[in-house]
Specification:
This protein has 588 residues and is mainly alpha-helical. It is built from 23 helices and six strands.
Length: 588
């Protein structure tokens, strides 16, 4: 696959990176010639898909830095305080990492046990860790000597790079030698001097020191922004500038989450004063924010902090870390827009602020052979008491979506929502082979999870024997547009009802087990393909994973992964020999 020259790999890394040359007029601002951004994938197609958006963000950043931001007199104290705070915090982190002689011995023993005593790289790593405190002390000593030398040239040389970094972080364009530039340099030097005092005090185990320089006082910042420049005011401008890039429901949900963030920091809080601290604290508060809060009567009319306080009384379940990350992701595009347009000095929501998620722990369980037998020998498939009591044995045959969706999921690996939204016209022939088209076309209520989800899935022969095509023809003759007209989207336009109802059915017939849900069919389908001898890269496109899972892309209509006949051959290798479904067959 041909990749753009700016998509590359670093030596020793399997992942792709975006490598961008900094424009010549901004090299001095950045202090380097290139920017490397990890694309977090080893797949060339996934890297190719992700790179344009990240490149666009960098171009926005370059534009913002060229526009520059004026440094006001009020900013000088903030620069000094923020720099001092960062240096003191870094000092604390470095001290936490300092190892005793015994701990260093234990570290070396672990290293040689892992890689061997003769490994040069291991020794280099050990030396780097061992000598870090001494290097830190020497750096401090050199800085102290320069700043207290009384020599203006030495002071300037000691802080010049730091001054440029502080200005660059704020996208500020300040002419060297100007009055403002000198004031920023003075602020940086004074912050560094106060930091060195704290570091020296800490060397003597005095951790109570506070700044005595009058410039370094936590500023009493204004609490209110004028109308038109508040968070939600600017969010409206963001929506108009960026346009509706997602489904209307997604845009609406994102706006509600940004509203929660505004309520947290204060709806009249000045946007220019937003910082990483606000994001960190918002993230930590979301962990104790109740699920579905807007739908709970007890929280009606309440703001973010009031909801949290009320929930301490009623004890509803709160957001998990994965959902918190989704909330942060909803806020992030707006925050990037604020940064690119100069409303805040630098990006404040970076990757390190997201919760670390154990992806292995999230995996769904797969149905065992015995569980499959139990499910497909249950009343829904063999005769139930009534259409309302499908979990109880009887002689009533139910052949609506509740019967068909598990069977189609079992033999297609499709997502439940993809099956639920199928139109009658989505099931049609290609070169004489019946296939299901998974698309977001043909109906306003249809949607797909990702662009790779748009695909063509041949109908498994077992589904033909079970009568799926006859059911399709019956729906067509009845004038129905959908394969399963009984299923309706929920209030948010999602196809979540089938999943909820079928998961409840699984529980009622005795298969209740954590992480065993109707979506487990999708994972089971992948396992059966592997059992048939296929590698993940050979079938990812059938599941709609694209290169992230398969190294191949499946697109609606073009069949880049082979003809319908070849796809059918792949599908036919999925077998469930432990199941006896012959009693459910209809004449083909």
């Amino acid at each position: 696959m041909s990749l753009a020259t700016y998509i590359t790999k670093r030596n020793g890394s399997a992942r792709y990176y975006l490598r961008v040359t900094i424009p010549s007029d901004l090299i001095e601002v950045y202090g380097k010639r290139e920017i490397w951004k990890s694309l977090r994938t080893a797949s060339p197609t996934e890297a190719k898909a992700q790179a344009p958006a990240i490149l666009a963000e960098l171009q926005d950043e370059f534009s913002a830095r060229r526009r520059g931001r004026e440094i006001l007199a009020d900013d000088i104290g903030a620069i000094a305080w923020e720099r001092y705070s960062r240096l003191v915090a870094k000092d604390e982190r470095l001290r936490d990492r300092e190892l005793t002689e015994n701990e260093l011995d234990q570290l070396w023993n672990l290293i040689i046990k892992e890689v061997g005593e003769e490994d040069h790289e291991a020794w280099r790593i050990y030396q780097h860790i061992r000598d870090e405190p001494e290097r830190y002390r020497k750096t401090r000593a050199a800085l102290h000597a320069a700043l207290t030398s009384g020599d203006a040239n030495k002071v300037h040389q000691a802080v010049s790079k730091s001054v440029e970094r502080e200005l660059a972080a704020r996208y500020a364009k300040v002419e060297a030698g100007s009055s403002i530039h000198r004031k920023v340099a003075n602020a940086v030097a004074r912050a560094d001097v106060e930091f060195l005092k704290r570091a020296t005090e800490r060397d003597g185990m005095d951790w109570g020191g506070v700044p005595t320089d009058p410039m370094l006082k936590r500023e009493q910042k204004p609490k209110h922004a004028v109308a038109g420049s508040r968070i939600m005011d600017l969010y409206g401008q963001f929506e108009r500038n960026k346009g509706a890039t997602k489904k209307a429901d997604t845009n609406d949900q994102n706006k509600k989450i940004v509203q929660l963030f505004a309520e947290f920091v204060g709806e009249t809080f000045p946007v220019s004063e937003l910082s990483r601290r606000h994001i960190t604290e918002f993230r930590d508060q979301l962990i104790i924010f109740p699920k579905m809060a807007r739908q709970v009567a007890e929280f009606r009319g309440m703001k973010f902090k009031e909801i949290i306080a009320k929930n301490r009384e009623i004890g509803r379940k709160t957001l998990d870390e994965r959902t918190v990350n989704k909330y942060l992701s909803a806020v992030n595009p707006f925050l990037r827009w604020l940064s690119s347009n100069g409303y805040i000095s630098a990006p404040i929501l970076t990757d390190d602020l997201y919760n670390a998620i154990d992806t292995e722990a999230r995996k769904y369980k797969v149905f065992t052979s015995d569980q499959l037998k139990t499910l497909f020998a249950s009343p829904l498939f063999r005769g139930c008491q009534s259409a309302d009591e499908i979990h109880k044995p009887g002689n009533v045959e139910v052949r609506d979506w509740r019967y068909w969706l598990p069977l189609v999921a079992l033999f297609s690996g499709a997502r439940l929502g993809e099956i639920a939204q199928l139109l009658v016209d989505d099931v049609r022939q290609i070169d004489g082979i019946w296939c299901a088209y998974v698309t977001d076309q043909g109906d306003d209520e249809k949607s797909i999870k990702t662009k790779n989800a748009r695909r063509v899935i041949p109908i498994h022969p077992e589904l033909v024997k079970l009568g799926l095509l006859k059911m399709r023809e019956a729906q067509r003759k009845a004038g129905h547009k959908r394969m399963f007209p009984e299923i309706k989207v929920d209030a948010r336009g999602h196809w979540g009802v089938p999943s909820k109802e079928l998961n409840k059915y699984i529980d009622r017939i005795g298969l209740k087990e954590k992480k065993l849900v109707i979506h487990s069919f999708r994972h089971l389908f992948a396992d059966r393909l592997r059992l048939a001898g296929h590698l993940d890269r050979d079938f990812g496109f059938i599941l709609g994973h694209g290169d992230k899972k398969a190294g191949i892309t499946g697109h609606y209509g073009s069949l880049p992964q082979g003809t319908a006949k070849r796809r059918l051959k792949l599908i036919q290798t999925v077998k469930f020999e432990e199941l006896d479904l012959k009693q459910l067959y209809l004449d083909a």
